[in-house]
């Protein structure tokens, strides 16, 4: 990464930080590009070099986070990780982002990050066999994402391992047809 690219990346990160600082006290709909650039101490022109609008900035955060999840998951877990390991990793990965995610949840912006993301999670990203059906993959993605939403909406969420253990303990209780 050359100096100009590094500076552009630093500006994007400052703008993401500014967005979350402003979300703590303002409704997303009321935040303007001017508010973001003032908070980040950057020129509006700098904002528009990277983003068309604040929705693009939010999408950037979501896409970047999901790509980071995929990269870290591939580095830390084998392709054949069992469901318990994969679930525990999933919740542990998002734990450091809990304050930011909670702000998004409080403003009903969180669930849209997954549906609007250009990053597609694969069966391997969830600890599934690559041959898993798209139905099972979608079911798990939706379930994990919704659980993440419910978990981090709490003022004091339980530790990540507790959430994963609870889910794994309760999954076999789902009624099935015999």
UniProtKB/TrEMBL annotation:
Organism: Levilactobacillus zymae
Domain HTH tetR-type, chain residue ranges per copy: 9-69
Keywords for the protein's UniProt record, in alphabetical order: DNA-binding
Top-level lineage group: Bacteria
This protein's name: Transcriptional regulator, TetR family
PANTHER family (alphabetical): ACREF/ENVCD OPERON REPRESSOR-RELATED (PTHR43479), ACREF_ENVCD OPERON REPRESSOR-RELATED (PTHR43479:SF11)
Signal peptide bounds: none
DNA-binding region: 32-51
């Amino acid at each position: 990464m050359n100096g100009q690219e590094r500076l552009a990346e630093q500006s994007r990160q400052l703008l993401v930080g500014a967005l979350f600082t402003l979300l703590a006290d303002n409704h997303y709909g009321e935040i303007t590009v001017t508010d973001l650039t003032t908070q980040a101490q950057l020129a509006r022109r700098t904002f528009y070099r990277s983003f068309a609008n604040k929705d693009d900035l939010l999408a950037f955060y979501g896409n970047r986070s999901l790509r980071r999840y995929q990269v870290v998951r591939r580095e830390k877990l084998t392709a054949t990780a069992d469901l318990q390991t994969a679930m525990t990793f999933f919740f542990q990965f998002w734990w450091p982002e809990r304050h930011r995610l909670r702000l998004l949840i409080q403003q009903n912006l969180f669930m849209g990050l997954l549906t609007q993301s250009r990053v597609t999670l694969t069966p391997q990203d969830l600890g599934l066999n690559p041959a898993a059906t798209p139905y099972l993959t979608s079911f798990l993605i939706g379930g994990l994402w919704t659980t993440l939403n419910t978990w981090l909406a709490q003022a004091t969420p339980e530790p990540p391992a507790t959430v994963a253990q609870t889910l794994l303990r309760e999954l076999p209780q789902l009624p099935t047809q015999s």
